[in-house]
Design goal:
Number of helices: 6
Order of helices and strands: EEHHHHHH
Protein name: Transmembrane protein, putative
Structural class: mainly alpha
Helix content: 55-70%
Keywords: Membrane, Transmembrane
Distance between the termini: 41 Å
Length: 176
């Protein structure tokens, strides 16, 4: 060990910290995982919704009349698959990005107000605001539908992941 190496003691744990130049920023931000959490939220949202869209595209695109030319049948089938899969995936990824951004912002700016709420109540609040913003152009009924839908989707997902986490099937929970 060189003379420039130092030890930092935090919470009765002994950490070896070098005074090297390249790793100072990494050590400074090592507990901050905004990017990985955001990628996880958006990625999982996209994959799950794309799977639902793929199933819907398969159901809608499956031909009822096989008398059409094979090329037209396949074209209709694959167009339906692609359209539904990409539409569902992109909308869910956008909603996941919006949800995570709103949750992080509200947690940062309203930390004292969120202190007394449970994780489930925080998720419902953030989900309803996300649904409200996501359906902004839909009019009055769209606002209500988006708010209730956002709260219902994130509430159900939160309860489902909490259940799977309690059974030790998942190692994460939906919380801010």
């Amino acid at each position: 060990m060189s003379d420039q190496d130092t030890f930092v003691i935090e919470d009765s744990k002994k950490h070896h910290k070098k005074s090297a130049h390249a790793h100072d920023d990494f050590e400074k931000y090592s507990g901050y995982n905004f990017g990985s959490d955001l990628c996880f939220t958006v990625g999982i949202s996209y994959l799950l919704a794309s799977s639902v869209g793929l199933v819907k595209g398969f159901v809608e695109g499956f031909p009822t009349n096989f008398s059409l030319p094979k090329k037209l049948l396949l074209n209709n089938f694959f167009n339906s698959l692609g359209k539904n899969q990409s539409t569902f995936g992109q909308k869910a990824a956008g909603a996941g990005f919006l949800y995570y951004g709103i949750g992080t912002g509200m947690n940062f700016f309203f930390e004292d107000q969120f202190e007394d709420l449970t994780d489930f109540q925080k998720n419902l609040t953030i989900g309803s605001i996300t649904g409200l913003i996501f359906t902004t152009g839909s009019g009055g009924l769209g606002f209500l539908r988006g708010t209730l839908g956002g709260a219902a989707i994130i509430g159900g997902l939160s309860l489902f992941t909490d259940y799977l986490h309690s059974k030790q099937y998942l190692s994460f929970q939906v919380k801010f």
